[in-house]
Amino acid sequence: MRGVSAADLTLPPAAEGSADVASHLFRARQVQADRYSGSGIRTNAEVLSYRRQAPWNWLRLGNDGLASRSSTEGDYMTELTPIDWAKRPLQKYADFSGRAPRAEYWWFTLALVVAYIVISIVESIVGIDHTVGPYGPLSILLMLGTLVPSIAVGVRRLHDTNRSGWWLLIGVVPYAIFALAAGAALASGSMMALAGATMLLGLLAFAGGIALLVFMVLPGTKGDNSYGSDPYAGSAAAATV
Hints:
Helix 5 (about 80-90) crosses helix 6 and helix 8 (about 175-190) packs antiparallel against helix 9. The longest helix is centred in the last third of the chain and has 27 residues, at about 190-215. The chain is mainly α and about 240 residues long. It has helices at about 5-10, 20-35, 45-55, 70-80, 80-90, 100-125, 135-160, 175-190, 190-215. The chain has 9 helices and no strands. The radius of gyration is 24 Å and the shape is flat.
């Protein structure tokens, strides 16, 4: 396996501001990929494959600062496919820090919806739906398995808009209020109080859900914010995604 020398990774002064910069950057990528795989790089496809396996390590330059780590990460983010985006919350399973762009949150959400539909159809065909209330065992397993990453990516999405992850509670608090109000109504035996609690739940849940939806569709703040650096820093997508 071949090592990496300073000469391979430091931009030659002669290349600064010239067309040799691009070739030097590609050579640096080859060297890093060679170090990773031990088999060398022969095609652009192999370079892209390596970058997806080790996205934050594929390129290191010297002190010239032509390509910083943040710009490298931004370039990588623009190359992710919808499947890559959908997998990221699972790969960052319980990571509640940092930021998640809209693509990460919504592709993951779409993947969950599709998974629930497919599993529901399978459970219905097999005859194991409505095993636990309205859910089947496979739906319960999927729900439990994705609960933590779903909350985590929601927190990071709020961070991307420079909001605290505690804002997620506006989608939960109405149900807690309803539980308390319903308990008090049942204890007093008043059906009018129970009806009032149900109406209160509907109004609060609707308002909270709309507010949370708006937060999730808003673009992330440009540049660094209180919760981390811009996921698209250094890339053209930073202005649009």
